[in-house]
Structure prediction request, 584 residues.
Amino acid sequence: MQMSKIHTLLSLLQGCNSMERFKKIHTQILINGYQENPSLSHKLITFCAISVAGSLTYASLLFNQMKNPQTSAYNSMIRGYSQGFFPLNAIFIYNRMVKEGHSRVNSFTFSFLLKACEKAKEEKKCREAHGSIIRNGYMSSVMVCTNLVRAYSGNGSMETARRVFDEMAVRDLVAWNAMISCYSQAGLHDEALKIYDWMRILDVGLDEFTVVGLLSSCAHVGGLDIGVWMHRFADKNGFSHNVFVGNALIDMYAKCGVLDGACLVFDKMERRDVFTWNSMIMGLGVHGRGDQAIRFFRRMLMAGIRPNSITFLGLLCGCSHQGLIEEGVEYFRMMSSEFDLKPGVKHYGCMVDLFGRAGKLEDALGIIENSNSSDDPVLWRTLLSACKIHGNVEMGEVAMRNLVRIEGGNAGDCVLLSRIYAELGDGQGVSRMRKMIKYKGIKTTPGWSWIEVDGNIRKFIVGDKSHCDSKEIYLKLKEMIHQAALIGYKEEKSLMSLLESTEEWSESSGTSDHYHSEKLAIAFGLARTPKGTRLRIVKNLRVCRDCHSLTKFVSKAFDREIVVRDRVRFHHFKDGSCSCKDYW
Prediction:
């Protein structure tokens, strides 16, 4: 009779889907005195700690009432906290488990603990757990080692994560996917694609998660050829119907400058979520197609999809790049008035950029002063950039004073103000900016450019001579500059040109020994691709004026379409002109 009641209660717990129902079952367990039954106590803890309908607070009460919790109970609590908002509690539970010594840790214990270490950013505990894993003989567990890789990566220790991965005796597809994801999240997209090359050699195979991870890396480095191959693979294996794969494809095509490809994927998707629409709106926005972004937004509302802050960021970005002031103001107000969304610093930045580009610098200043982010250097830097466009030295100095005030200034800010001074012939102003960079030890950010040729990604830095084919590249570069000069290109060697390339700036920047990274990437592309092939460059920084000018002439001299994605926007060069209309 007792066993029959216990089985009944276990069945009821198995089908439980709410805390209200759970409490009724728990009451019956207490009334009948079955709370010490191991099977029932395990089910109670598991439901409360892990189920979506459960409660970790209630689970904690149950757990603390247990006399000698077994491994399963500890694991449920560690798992629940590792997935929730308080991952440190998972570590505390593990410490208690080890200290009391009633239960033996197993592979699941370590896996859940490592997820908590990843989420709580506890590298020290991660390394301690690593030692325990070795001592307990779990380094042969693919599951444990995969979570160890993720934990180290999540704590910024990519070298250690890779070492663990390399030393794994057996790797399943989940482990390979984890390594790709870790590299991608760390911004090491070229390394993620190298993992894919290794997978291909070993014939590991791919699934939807592999495709999504690799498409993300392709999007960041402009790896269109690999991305197209992934698209074909997804179509062939039926992955294209997966909304996450579809979203990744849209993002990849948009960030590689192929909006037609993004639209084609969008139109074929059977199911779309807010990320699908956001990818299209953001893609159109950074290409300067604000009017098309607005049309997609209206379609999104008609489809019953509620926009979020990313949606409006894409809209405002498009309005800014296309000069749609009235529309930008309308959508900025709509965020809070109709959708109860609080603008963030990036939204305010778009509005500063919108007014700044249009020459409405006082309005741009007003946006900063009335925002809740007036101490964010991004806003003042955006205003300073607008001052450079319009040559307004007074407002530029206001922006610089505020950057100095909040200690948010960098070498780039000094360069922007230097250019304004240089255009006005103010040598003393330029000298002050040079001294500020030199004496305050302001650091510059290294500049690099990626280009994909024949499915291989090549990375260049300023003055790069590390490549085995550097001689060929520099010969092509000289030819490129010569041909561009024949049709009107003039290298800008003035002081403001030398200073303009903020992050690649050095005393000899702009000289023949220190060519900027996109010039080298374009030269390599011209040397290694057939005539008529479109070149796609991804640059981590803003394109300088001299490089922008040269690329326009190169597109005409060599009859090439050149697409450059810089830190701010896309530039489509063709027949000697750029889609930004020299306004970036």
